[in-house]
Amino acid sequence: MTKLSNLVKKADGESRELSATSPAPPPTRAIISGSNEQVQQIRSLYETAVDRLEDALSTVRNGGGTPDFDAPWAAAQQLLPVIETSKRILLGLVARDYNEKTVAYHSINVFVLTVHAADGLSQSTDEQITLARAALYHDIGMALVPNEIVGKKRALSAAEEAEVRKHSDHGAGLLAGLGNDLLCALLKQSHERVDGKGYPAGLHDQDIHPLAKLLHAADSYEAIVHRRAYKFRLSPYEAMKTIKSGVGTHFGQEAFRLLLKAVGAFPIGTLVELNTRERSKVVDNNAEQLLRPAVAILTGPDGADLPAARFLDLSESTGVYVARALVDEELQEKSIDIF
What we know:
This protein is of the alpha+beta class. It has 15 helices and 7 strands. The chain has a 5-stranded antiparallel beta sheet with strand order 6-5-4-3-7. A two-stranded antiparallel sheet has the order 1-2.
């Protein structure tokens, strides 16, 4: 089956495969430092997708009628081949914090994570493309939730929580005119839980579309690893542990498996300590060896910063392995901005 990350959807509905025209990745050190042209090009594509989605959200917020759904989708499609050829860089961008355009950044990140995880699905190409669009627009209905609730810096009241829970139906209503029933169903089901305690309909496992389960897992992971005004974030490693602990209640087993294979046991951005006592940041994952990621070593065994990060692929270094994951405060993000 053709991978979703190799496909775009033309305006007339016909699928076409993208050629891998992106240049070969530059030397590893350049990727780690974030100083090369390829990183900047990918960052530009990513930020453009965020901006186009923010435009659509602003149209809805400001009562401007039906937003332009084509522009965000066209911009997001430019990221599809990047997910295939340069996922390390793109997932590094996804791991970064953001303090503005919160719904737009969150949605683009969920789009990237969902598309990456969906490459392991057996669904048809049309279904996978619909999943990608659902990931992109899954929170479009948040634009109809009052700003004073969306921007609140403390826990929501029961009444405010009820307003937020309407956003799935709001989003499906906004997209109804596109005539894609599966798209609307995925938006409505993106917050359902397999134990029946999700919203808006309280559906149980067997009644939730498998693609919606994957979208729910990716959405939850992205939210957990990013700060909000009302909550702290968890490390990528702790976030995956949280998702795993929710299998059978919040999440389906297959959705967790696909997400785990996509982001790894130690997702990109995770701070780790090696058995050599060197502290490092994960910069890539190995799908066949989930416990042996590629890392940028930031400190020596004595804890002193290295003059420059040193790259090591643990899948090729049998004597070196991850001893434990670190919390941010232990490394203080002081040595290098990987991406």
